[in-house]
Amino acid sequence: MNISEPQVLLEKITALREKLEKAVREPALQNLSGGEGVDIFTRRNRLASKLTESDDCDSVIIDESKTSTAIRLPVLLTSKARELLVHGKDLIGELRNLANAFLLYRTDDEVASKKGTQESGALLKLYRETTAMADTALRMIPNFPESPSSQLQLCAGVEAIFQVISQRLRILKQACIAKEKELQKISKLGELFDVILAGGKVDFFEVQIIVEDILEEVRHGETLRLLREDIDYPARYVACKGINFARVVARVIFQDAQLRVASMEIIAAALFLDIGMIKIQSSGLVEPERVHGKMSRAYESHCFIGAELLRVSFPQMPLLAEAALSHHENIDGSGFPSGFKGEEISPVIRFLAVCERYIARCMSPSRDKPLNTKGALTSVLMDSEDGKLDKVYARFLLAVSFYPSGTAVELSDGSLGVVLANPLSKNAEIESNNQIVAVLRESDGSYLPKPKILDLAGRTSPAVLRCLSQQEKDDLIGSEFPEWNSH
User: In the CATH scheme, what is the code of domain 401-487?
Assistant: First the structure.
């Protein structure tokens, strides 16, 4: 019979394969047979462990003489599959290391009473999806089929999945780094609050570190990030407001040469302006209701309390105490607690009063409400026109703009995006539609493969229609562009 015939050749290959399998199988069984007292599952596990140490790539089927069923051992993996297995375990380890970053920075009692208050919905969802994706891909590898060619084909798919996971992991790491920096500022400022509230003196070098960090943000052109905190936690609420206040001050103070000279002390004053609020009841943290045209006495008292605390803790820096006492004064005499007006209020206090009014009206304790930056700036400008606030310093806030960089916005054509910059123009006082926006979602609801940069200056349409709340940002932008939702 001619050996070149296909049928004969196939039979010889099959016979050779059976001999090779028998040669591999029998020594393994002889080495791992633990005697009559060892059960079938123990022998199977030992054999599986032995075989996975070799470089063979076939599965091995063992027919036990005492049973009617065959036992399929785990498939032996190619070197590529093993590399992916190790890589997948490393990714899982990195994701586990990030787990704490997505927990609340609360005590156990606070977590129990406030579930999820400060979690960023889009980033938390991204973390959970990425962890599930990594776990699923990792579990696929040990269940690959026995064929090496099939394994290599599946390895290409798993490798692509791991690349996506690695990209998401970078986004999550960047978000965690940014969040950690913010938490460090809040924590450090909270520690200084504790010292001040206890009547101790504070080394100004500790304050200077926070101020320098905020100034560094401005030098690098970072977006204006306004922090939020639940008013049920007075110390952290005041710390967040102080950091927000200092960030705004740092962005507008350099428009005035005299203020620039004392910028370090003025920004420091912004950090501690409302420390007296921690001493009063939590209800006083909410914008107080007017009773017969006057502020509540409890709310007004935070000015005196804060001034006295800062006078003791910073005896060489009287500006901090003065700012805490008089930052609610108006130049027409309608402010509190002393009713100063005109020249009785120093230029620095006038400047701080403008910035404080802006931040107080921007901040909203509710996550489902947007940061009302446009309404806040409009209100401050109107108060300056009415003679309550200094006109010159109020116009300084135009550098921050109605929609600060980093603000998620809806345009008049229905598209969604994020403000990248607000270039100043000669007509900045009357022109509000000068933003540069990264459009992320079209008006028809479709997401762009990459952001489209749109300069709105000189355009009549589209224009910025409104700010998006953090919840809207999470739901409408965060799922598709989580890298734009890290703050």
Answer: 2.30.30
Top pLDDT among 228 and 411 is at 411
- The pTM assigned to this predicted structure is 0.74
Check whether 47 has a pLDDT greater than 60: no
Q: Among 228-232, 348-352, 448-452, which range has the highest average pLDDT?
A: 348-352
Q: What fold, for 199-400? A: Hypothetical protein af1432 (1.10.3210)
Strands in 436-441's sheet, in edge-to-edge order, are 447-455, 436-441, 416-421, 408-411, 464-467
pLDDT-derived band at 63, boundaries 50, 70, 90: very low
Q: How far apart are CA 139 and CA 323, in angstroms?
A: 60
b/e per residue 126-149 (b: at least 16 CB within 10 A): bbeebbebbeebbebbeebeeebe
Task: Measure the CA–CA gap between 67 and 52, rounded to whole angstroms.
Answer: 24
Residue 417 CA to residue 438 CA, distance in Å, equals: 5
Name the pairing type of β-strands 408-411 and 61-63. unpaired
3-state secondary structure 232-264: CCHHHHHHHHHHHHHHHHHHHHHHCHHHHHCHH
Q: Where do the structural domains in the chain lie, given as residue ranges?
A: 6-70, 79-180, 199-400, 401-487
**Backbone φ and ψ of 325, nearest 5°:** -75, -40
How far is it, in rounded angstroms, from Cα 413 to Cα 410?
8
Helix H or strand E segment including 455 = strand 447-455
At 370 the pLDDT is: 53
Phi, psi angles (nearest 5°) of residue 89 = -65, -35
- Determine the pLDDT at residue 153: 92
Instruction: Tell me the torsion sign for CA atoms 244, 250, 252, 253.
Output: positive
pLDDT tens for residues 117-154? 344 567 788 888 999 999 999 999 988 888 888 889 99
Residues forming a β-bridge with 411: 464
pLDDT band at 425 (very low <50, low <70, confident <90, very high): low
For the record, the structure tokens of 184 come out as 């460090």
**Residue 96: exposed, middle, or buried by beta-carbon count in 10 A (0-12, 13-18, 19+)?**
exposed
Q: Write down the residue that tokens 């970072």 correspond to.
A: 222
Q: Given a cut of 60, is residue 24 above it in pLDDT? A: no
Residue 206 region by backbone torsions, left for phi larger than 0, else alpha for psi between -120 and 50, else beta: alpha
Give the model confidence (pLDDT) of 447-463 as tens digits: 998 899 998 887 778 88
CB-based burial label for 204 (10 Å; 0-12, 13-18, 19+): middle
Q: Cite the DSSP H helix spans in 334-425.
A: 347-362, 373-385, 391-396
Asked if residue 282 lies in contact with residue 231, where contact means CB atoms within 8 angstroms, the answer is yes
